[in-house]
Amino acid sequence: MTTPEHHALTDRVTAGPGGAMTVQVGVITGDLTVTTTARGDGTAGVVIQYTGAEESYDLEGGSVRIPPGGIDALHRAALEAVRAGGAAQMPGTAPRP
Question: For the range 68-74, what are the long-range contacts, defined as Cβ-Cβ under 8 Å and sequence gap of 24 or more?
Answer without folding.
Answer: 70/1, 70/3, 71/3, 71/7, 71/9, 71/36, 71/38, 71/44, 72/9, 74/36, 74/44
